[in-house]
Amino acid sequence: MKHRVMKLFDLLRRHPTIRNAEALADFIDRNAAFLVQKGIYEYSRARAGHYGKVLFSEPGFQQAVEQSRWRAYPLGLAMVGEVVEVVLSANGPTDRAAVLGPLTALVLSIYDRYPVPAVLDERDWSAARADLARRLQQLGLHPPKRAIDVSEPLAETYFNLMPIHEKLRGPDFPTLRNYLRVTLCNIHDELTKRMDPAPLVQALRRLD
């Protein structure tokens, strides 16, 4: 009974309003990690079927999952960062440049929270950061997208990072692409409900 009451309490509890850069950074970090990890774990379990527990207990597979997780994390930051820009563009100032620069700096600072993962080398980690910076800087070259379209340029790259041999993946790319679309739309909706646009934009501008 106590467990059920706690679950109900969690459902009714309101998430705090996002009105400063620190809260936004935590939102981006949490959702980027959730986006890529959930896809990796659920896809791997689905492909393994009844052998899922056995597969996930294998040290070699655990290593492959860790590599996939960390290689995908910058992609998650790029996608969630763009969704944030979409929401801010719809609710904030008309001058996108006033937000894009600080938002890029914020997302890169999130990446820099983490040391080089043990499963990657420093060169790969630095290259992934440079690629993330390039993707974020290119957001101003096109109008804001719909949240459902944000994952399109990265969906195949993400799919290719799955820790399942490519011969065993089957025709699963559309399913994983739809997962990214739906999850990013949910992230868009959550941020729209939780953020306070005016103080959040002001906080971002102070990062310049």
SSE map:
Blueprint: H1 2-12, H2 21-48, H3 52-57, H4 59-91, H5 97-111, H6 122-137, H7 155-159, H8 166-169, H9 173-194, H10 197-205
Give an overview in words.
The protein is 72% helix and 0% strand. By secondary structure, it is mainly alpha-helical. The protein has one domain. Helix 2 crosses helix 4, helix 2 crosses helix 5 and helix 5 runs antiparallel to helix 6. The longest helix has 33 residues. It is globular and about 50 Å long. The chain starts with a helix and ends with a helix.
Record keyword descriptors for this entry.
10 helices, mainly alpha, disordered N terminus, about 210 residues
Helix/strand/pairing category: mainly alpha
The shape, in one word, is: globular
Give the uncertain stretches in residue-range form: 1-12
| Rg for CA atoms | 18 Å
